[in-house]
């Protein structure tokens, strides 16, 4: 259960409407308002009704605002982990059901992960207290290549869904090829076949729509048709998990053929096609720590990839090293910097880039008027491994820096006979 | 009497004659001859060669190198600003502030940079679970039986694993390669210098004792309890785990008694045959003799608590608990029992026994006066153990544990060296030690710092400024991005 800071906020917890959220001013800090740029010294950031209402240098604080003093500290938008199973999995190995995995189901094109989402997962609080306030979450495996409709979530206790059906996830890698018969030849054929059929169906429906509006109104499209239509009409991107250079070339051809919006995830050898990806307008979501030839799809992997893609004009966001440690997406940003990515670009990749890639740029990613108040006050350079947050706000609510882990820490700080009594 | 041959640490380099005998070669020593009554016709004494796969490691060529003007962490808790380190003949010759370069030495101005002992990772599966991680390369868990002390990691060590080079770029100079944790007893580990070779023996750390991998908890009971290996296999529970360890030790005691009796009888002049070699019990008996060090995969505090008593019951020493995500709950007991904990900074949550991992585990173990080690168990993590130490240090400080960076480096080099039994040779920057040294581009507790130069025995094994000089493993030749920076 959330322990909010003030009695006013406690009242807000009872009434979950943002209208009751606390008015907060964060003052005196060095703010980066637009990813790694838009630096504001001695920033006054005002938060009301869960939104940022003003960002000024040295601005005054209106009456009634609780002040968080960020003097000498760094202030950024909350970071985003761009590919996780947060809220869909708890203990992944032998620990009960894992909702991100549906190995016996196929063709889940129209299925949203949101009904399975659990904001009470212990990993959520562990993630947010390290300054990561948003995450992309999705299914990771099914009986074929289709991984359903993923979501963007806030690391909050309630109102957690920032975007349902944010993308259609498709596995176009070795594992999916194994599931669909054992060959990439079949995998790519099936992908194109599915999109051909959906396009034909959508075009026919549009024709009949012209002929007979009543008939169309009477028949609601299936979840699958609705998802495919959204993708084909450009309203929903696909998140395609692909690593090998040759497969990424297939993906670019696929995008050009159907004119859909594509996000490239995994992307082990994407840097080899950086210019082509930039030209095709395909953003890349990758794990900068991955630099080993773990299989024959990723022989060319290097931690220099993020910097190379950025230099070519590709928009980049970061995958963390696993879901329990989704918070380490920040360390991953540091790894990218240490291998050549500019610091500013890595900051973008933690904030404004994933916001744009996943369609949230209107509400999240910047410290600016009207944006959701996901704000983190850091005790130093946020990307440094020895830095950590001193304050975390998600949609205007300040969360205490408490999690199951910090409670264990506090219980065992001084060892005694029966710590279970230490409550 | 105790026979010197059996009690000797035969795995350490000895006279050439000792090393080159086949496993069951017959030999008589002067000592035995002196003890043997002259009127008894005896067969020759059968001794076991404890080093049948001797190290063929040789240091790479090196020249004298003086690093000057650096912030030096000596690996035993000390820091020198504006410090110098002189390496010559593969050894550290001097560490201090006022050291002059010998004639012909390479002098490196390291102003603004840091120098540390090379990082030693006590928990790696490089070579035994190499990249690419295809089924054909899965050589780390001999799951046929719950106790496979006869399986040796070095026999699966593929020296062409590209992970070794990535680790060198992360400042790794020595590492222990362990069997996996599927078994109650997984087998022998091998400690290596991080210098590529053509065969596994080329990489073996000369004089390093063997380790033996054991595992607590979920993994053995899952592997043998799921029925896939037949219903007769135990364990299925933690009860079965402990029963399995105890029976294995009881069998090892029995085996050792048979050998002891053979030695006594032979010494008494009897014409006796030795017991039949049992490769499984050879290793377990080696632990009971104190020749082989136990490194035990355990997560939960209560599992570790059980093993401390098994250890006392059978009179052996657990050198380290590996992973040890709950060491913070029993850090005082670990200090009392002189058991190291090899830990991650923050890896947790992926299975039930890792669910209670906390970010302050390492500093809390340190605070209790127990031996704390940062380990990786990961081909990725091994590349950034300095960052793992940095995170643990920062989290410890925030929880009120006052630790300096110089002290924290002990987790990366001296304590690992102690737990591998190689601390007389490496792990600190002291005159006479192996010149296993890293020159960092800046403070190694920063995510932005990289190893500029990694030295093993005074020779450069990784040079960030000269990518073309860095090794490329056979597997990566002719493949995409051959020789790229990684």
Indicate how many domains the architecture of chain A comprises. Answer: 2
Name the structural class of chain A.
Answer: alpha/beta
CATH architecture of the domain at 119-252 and 274-424 in chain B: Alpha-Beta Barrel
Identify low-pLDDT runs of chain A. Answer: 1-19
CATH class membership of the largest domain in chain A: Alpha Beta
Total number of strands of chain A: 18
> In this structure, how is the largest beta sheet of chain B organized?
8 strands, mixed
Beta-strand portion of chain A reads 15-25%
- The CATH homologous superfamily of the largest domain in chain A corresponds to Metal-dependent hydrolases
Kindly state the percentage of residues in helix of chain A. 25-40%
Helix tally of chain B? 13
| Average pLDDT rating of chain A | 93
Which fold name fills CATH's third level, the topology of the domain at 119-252 and 274-424 in chain B?
TIM Barrel
CATH topology of the largest domain in chain A: TIM Barrel
CATH class of the domain at 119-252 and 274-424 in chain B: Alpha Beta
Q: SSE order of chain B in H/E notation?
A: HHHEEEEEEHEEEHHHEHEHEHEHHHEEE
The oligomeric state of the chains shown is heterodimer
The number of helices of chain A is: 13
Rg of chain A: 22 Å
Topology:
The complex is a heterodimer of chains A (423) and B (486).
Chain A: H1 7-14, E1 24-34, E2 37-48, E3 51-57, E4 66-69, E5 74-77, E6 79-84, E7 101-102, H2 122-128, E8 132-137, E9 141-142, E10 146-154, E11 161-171, H3 174-179, H4 184-211, H5 213-218, H6 223-232, E12 238-242, H7 245-258, E13 262-266, H8 274-280, E14 284-286, H9 305-311, E15 316-318, H10 329-338, H11 343-350, H12 352-357, E16 375-378, E17 389-394, E18 397-399, H13 404-411
Parallel strand pairs in A: 1-4, 1-5, 6-8, 7-9, 11-12, 12-13, 13-14, 14-15
Antiparallel strand pairs in A: 1-2, 2-3, 5-16, 8-10, 10-11, 16-17, 17-18
Chain B: H1 4-7, H2 16-19, H3 30-35, E1 65-73, E2 79-88, E3 91-96, E4 106-109, E5 114-117, E6 119-124, H4 163-169, E7 172-177, E8 185-193, E9 211-215, H5 218-225, H6 238-267, H7 279-289, E10 293-298, H8 301-313, E11 318-323, H9 331-336, E12 340-343, H10 361-367, E13 372-374, H11 385-398, H12 405-408, H13 414-420, E14 437-440, E15 451-456, E16 459-463
Parallel strand pairs in B: 1-4, 1-5, 6-7, 9-10, 10-11, 11-12, 12-13
Antiparallel strand pairs in B: 1-2, 2-3, 5-14, 7-8, 8-9, 14-15, 15-16
């Amino acid at each position: 259960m959330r322990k909010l800071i003030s009695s006013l906020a406690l009242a807000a917890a009872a009434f979950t409407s943002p209208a009751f959220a606390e008015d907060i001013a964060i003052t005196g800090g060095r703010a980066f308002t637009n990813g790694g740029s838009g630096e504001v010294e001695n920033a006054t950031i005002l938060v009301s009704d869960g939104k940022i209402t003003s960002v000024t240098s040295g601005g005054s604080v209106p009456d009634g605002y609780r002040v968080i003093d960020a003097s000498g500290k760094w202030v950024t938008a909350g970071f985003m982990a761009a590919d996780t199973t947060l809220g869909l999995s708890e203990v992944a190995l032998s620990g009960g059901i894992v909702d991100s995995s549906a190995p016996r189901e196929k063709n889940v094109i129209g299925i949203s992960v949101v009904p399975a989402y659990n904001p009470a997962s212990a990993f959520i609080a562990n993630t947010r207290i390290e300054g990561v306030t948003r995450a992309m979450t999705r299914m990771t495996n099914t009986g074929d290549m289709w991984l359903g409709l993923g979501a963007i979530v806030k690391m909050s206790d309630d109102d957690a869904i920032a975007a349902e059906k944010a993308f259609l996830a498709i596995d176009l890698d070795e594992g999916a090829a194994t599931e669909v018969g054992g060959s990439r030849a079949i995998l790519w054929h099936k992908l194109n076949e599915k999109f051909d059929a959906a396009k034909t169906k959508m075009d026919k429906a549009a024709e009949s729509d012209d002929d007979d509006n009543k008939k169309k109104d009477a028949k609601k499209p299936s979840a699958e048709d609705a998802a495919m239509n959204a993708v084909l009409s450009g309203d929903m991107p696909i998140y395609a998990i692909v690593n090998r250079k040759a497969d990424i070339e297939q993906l670019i051809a696929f995008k050009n053929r159907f004119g859909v919006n594509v996000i490239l995830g995994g992307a082990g050898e994407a840097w080899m096609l950086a210019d082509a990806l930039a030209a095709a307008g395909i953003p890349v979501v990758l794990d900068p720590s991955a630099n080993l030839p773990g299989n024959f799809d990723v022989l060319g992997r290097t931690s220099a990839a993020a910097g190379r893609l950025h230099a070519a004009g590709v928009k980049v966001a970061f995958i963390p090293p696993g879901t329990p440690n989704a918070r380490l997406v920040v360390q991953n940003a540091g790894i990218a910097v240490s291998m050549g990515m500019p610091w500013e670009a890595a900051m973008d990749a933690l904030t404004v880039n994933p916001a744009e890639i996943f369609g949230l740029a209107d509400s999240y990613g910047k410290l600016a008027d009207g944006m959701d108040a996901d704000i983190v006050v850091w005790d130093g350079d946020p990307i440094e491994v020895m830095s950590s947050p001193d304050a975390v706000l998600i949609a205007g609510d300040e969360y205490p820096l408490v999690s199951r882990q910090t409670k264990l820490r506090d219980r065992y700080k001084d060892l005694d006979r029966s710590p279970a009594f230490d409550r | 009497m105790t026979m010197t041959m059996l009690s000797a640490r035969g795995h350490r380099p000895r006279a050439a004659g000792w090393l080159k005998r086949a496993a069951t070669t017959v030999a008589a020593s002067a000592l035995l001859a002196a003890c043997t009554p002259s009127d008894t016709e005896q067969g020759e004494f059968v001794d076991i060669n404890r080093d049948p796969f001797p190290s063929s490691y040789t240091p790479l060529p090196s020249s004298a190198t003086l690093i000057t003007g650096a912030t030096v962490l000596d690996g035993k808790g000390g820091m020198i600003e504006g410090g110098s380190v002189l390496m010559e003949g593969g050894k550290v010759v001097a560490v201090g502030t006022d050291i002059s370069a010998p004639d012909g030495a390479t002098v490196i101005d390291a102003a603004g940079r840091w120098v540390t002992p090379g990082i030693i990772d006590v928990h790696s599966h490089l070579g035994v679970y190499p990249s690419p991680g295809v089924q054909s390369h899965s050589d780390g868990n001999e799951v046929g039986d719950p106790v496979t002390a006869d399986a040796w990691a070095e026999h699966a060590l593929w020296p062409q694993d590209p992970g070794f080079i990535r680790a060198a770029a992360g400042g790794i100079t020595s590492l222990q390669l362990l069997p996996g944790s599927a078994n109650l007893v997984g087998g022998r580990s091998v400690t290596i210098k991080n210098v590529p070779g053509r065969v596994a023996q080329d990489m073996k750390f000369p004089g390093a004792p063997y380790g033996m991998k054991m595992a607590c908890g979920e993994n053995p009971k899952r592997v043998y309890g799921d029925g896939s290996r037949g219903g007769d296999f135990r364990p299925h529970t933690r009860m079965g785990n402990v029963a399995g360890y105890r029976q294995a030790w009881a069998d090892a005691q029995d085996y050792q008694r048979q050998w002891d009796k053979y030695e006594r009888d032979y010494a008494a002049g009897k014409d006796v045959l030795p017991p039949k070699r049992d490769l499984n019990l050879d290793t377990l008996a080696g632990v009971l003799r104190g020749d082989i060090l136990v490194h035990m995969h355990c997560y939960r505090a209560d599992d570790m608590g059980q093993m401390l008593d098994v250890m006392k019951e059978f009179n052996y020493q657990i050198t380290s608990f590996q992973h040890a995500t709950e060491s913070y709950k029993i850090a005082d007991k670990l200090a009392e029992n002189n058991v190291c904990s090899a830990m991650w900074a923050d890896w947790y949550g992926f299975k039930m026994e890792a669910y209670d991992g906390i970010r302050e585990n390492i500093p809390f173990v340190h605070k209790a006066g127990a031996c704390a080690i940062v380990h990786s168990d990961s081909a990725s993590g091994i590349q950034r153990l300095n960052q793992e130490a940095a995170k643990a240090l920062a989290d410890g400080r925030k929880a009120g544990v006052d630790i300096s960076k110089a002290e924290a480096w002990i987790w990366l080099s001296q304590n690992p060296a102690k737990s591998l039994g190689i601390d007389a040779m490496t792990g600190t920057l002291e005159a006479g030690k192996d010149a296993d040294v890293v020159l960092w581009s800046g403070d190694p507790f920063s995510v932005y710092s990289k190893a500029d130069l990694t030295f093993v025995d005074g020779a450069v094994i990784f040079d960030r400024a000269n990518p073309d000089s860095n090794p490329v493993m056979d597997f990566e030749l002719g493949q995409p991005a051959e020789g790229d920076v990684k």
